[in-house]
From TrEMBL:
Gene3D superfamilies reported for this sequence: HAD superfamily/HAD-like
Organism: Pseudonocardia kunmingensis
Keywords tagged on the record: Hydrolase
Protein name: Putative hydrolase of the HAD superfamily
GO molecular function: hydrolase activity
Entry annotated with the keyword DNA-binding: no
A Pfam family reported for this protein in Swiss-Prot or TrEMBL: Hydrolase
Lineage of the species this protein comes from: Bacteria, Bacillati, Actinomycetota, Actinomycetes, Pseudonocardiales
């Protein structure tokens, strides 16, 4: 069967967040906080270990008071902010205002870069009449990020976990996404980087394909191979 719709994960699939050092440095500059370079590097490394950057490295250890919040962080905006600012507070930053400033920074278009082939792949899908949705486990509205990088006209629908109170791999979220793009799940390809969360699409009959969650400069063509699947007998899981 020909693929009539494609669902894309956001972070690690279509876009990638800046690294932790860039994230912290941008916030220090925005807030007028001056620190020695060695101190910036040290704090960035601690924030990285804590898993404080949404879309970045997962925490090595989730503190006991945050375990339940972490497990359901993408079910609401409040839980998402609480989980990530809670992780950031495991690191002693020089000013209390930096914790909220870091969280706000990660929601800005400047903090994200699309993968190099994302725009080209989305344009081909649009030209061929393939419906496109973005489905994400997230606690904030990513639409301004997509819009800020000029890709919003290439997306037909967004399904964000916090707006529905459920997270991938719950099949219900994938059903909502297929309905949003008006396509039967058996005609839909799910593309993501999380082999647990994104694999949930298979439960409702979607084909699934995975890409590697790599820095933007290390994955120039990770999405392009899916175009060869459009007219095939289906997109196999891999």
């Amino acid at each position: 069967m020909a693929i009539k719709g494609v669902l894309f994960d956001f972070s690690g699939t279509l876009f990638r967040i800046e690294n932790t050092h860039q994230w912290l440095s941008a916030v220090l500059e925005e807030t007028g906080t001056v620190l020695p370079p060695a101190e910036v590097t040290r704090l960035a490394q601690e924030l990285e270990r804590a898993g404080a950057l949404p879309g970045g490295t997962a925490p090595r250890v989730v503190p006991a008071p945050l375990v339940e919040l972490w497990a359901t962080r993408d079910e609401s905006a409040e839980r998402h902010r609480g989980a990530y600012t809670g992780l950031a507070r495991q690191v002693a930053l020089p000013e209390p205002r930096l914790y909220d400033a870091l969280y706000e920074r990660h929601m800005s278009p400047a903090a994200w870069r699309p993968y190099p082939d994302a725009a080209d792949v989305l344009r081909v899908l649009q030209r061929r009449g393939v419906r496109v949705g973005v489905i994400s486990n997230i606690g904030w509205d990513l639409r301004p990020v997509v819009r800020g990088h000029g890709l919003d006209p290439l997306v037909d629908a967004y399904v964000l976990s916090y707006e529905h109170g459920i997270q991938k791999p719950d099949p219900a979220l994938f059903r909502i996404a297929c309905d949003a793009i008006g396509t039967d799940p058996h005609d839909v390809l799910m593309v993501g980087d999380d082999r647990t969360a994104d694999a949930g699409a298979a439960a409702i009959g979607c084909a699934v394909r995975f890409v590697e969650h790599l820095p933007v400069d290390h994955r120039p063509d990770g999405l392009r191979p899916l175009l060869a699947l459009l007219d095939g007998p289906g997109a196999p899981s891999s």
